Amino acid sequence: KSEQELDEHARTQIVEDSIYVMRMNDFGGYTVPAQGLYPFQWNWDSAIVSAGWAVFDEARAWEELEKLFSGQWEDGMVPSIVFHRPSNTYFPGPDIWGTPQKPSKSTGITQPPVAALSVRFLYEHTENPELAEQKLVSLFPKLLAWHRWWYKARDPENTGVVAILHPWESGMDNSPAWDESMKFPIDKLPRYVRCDLNHVDSCMRPTQETYDRYLTLLHRFKAANFYDPSRLYWISPFRVTDLCVNSILIRANRDLRWLALRLEKDDIVKEIDEWLNKGFEGFKQLWDEDSGLFKCKDQLTGKLANAPISAAFLPLFAGVATKEQADKLTHNLERWLGQVNYGVPSMDPEDHRFEPLRYWRGPVWIIMNWMISNGLRHYGYDELADRIKDDSISLTTKAGLREYFDPLTGDGAGGRNFSWTAAMCLAWLD
Ligand code: 2M8
Question: Which domains does the chain have, with CATH numbers?
Fold first, then answer.
């Protein structure tokens, strides 16, 4: 068979496999990221997964988002995990979090706000405009409440950018960007047993010390009147401006604005415009001219995090980088890509902290590739955007629907049959 036929065959196979994985991980209205390893509904995973469902089952795609918002707290927060059904294969589960039922058992922290992007995607790709209109009307106030929550609870000092209070909120759990900010003392913790190491080799996961710090934060937040959002910002020993959350929030604000225009909600459009203007200003403090990259920032010390991570390119996705900044970013990105066989590594491969297999400290994540590639295209760097897309296709066809990938060998790593990787193959790569 010719090379082209083989390619075609691999592409058809990956689409079939992706649909199979989505169905397999469907637990009834919500999709688990990966069986065993992550057996509940995760926030940004689900938002991304809904775009994958939209390709072959639109009603199911809307249901994914509705189920996620069924866990929304009264104050507007959408938790990082909603524990719809019990499972003993993940730690920390609902007993450790111990959140009051509000309305479902959940964690007491949040995750990157992708959902508005998904609602717009579903609305624009609908084959059933009446259904889409109805879903938009019911989901819009929930999205708005969540975005308002971000500004109220996580930017009470009105800086234009929001804080995360736990590395789990960034989605990039053990990113080197948190190394300095995670140096607070570890509290005396109740004895605990991790479950992740039953599923994935320890060389691919956060270290034990990192877990002790995750748990220290969790227990301190729980002690603050069960994750009282008006207190957490002030008491957390970890408070950073994360590029991933903030870039996604800005992009989500743009999509929320687009949805508000559809619904003719002029006052809300004005409110969102203020967030966007403030956000543009806020991002200025995250630019590091020396390295030509955006950096996360420790809000407690006021210092930029000395870590060149792939989220540095996400301001392109948010549309907040200037043309000059975009040129410097792409210059860096080209250098990174020159050092690996498959992009985009989650950290500069020339940095001494780069570990090609350890989770958010080096591996390639297809969802990051999608956001970076989308941002590059928006700024007119089509060749680079194509290169990242091609690498993503090579990785998934070669190694399967894995959680993340080794940028040097292209081997798959972490969880298998991974939902958001499958969803990206359907909604982006096909
Ligand atoms: C990872 O995070 C969870 C905690 O939320 C974990 O390791 O236990 C991250 O990759 C996160 O971004 C992702 O949402 C989650 C589920 O895929 O796994």
Answer: 3-429 (1.50.10.10)
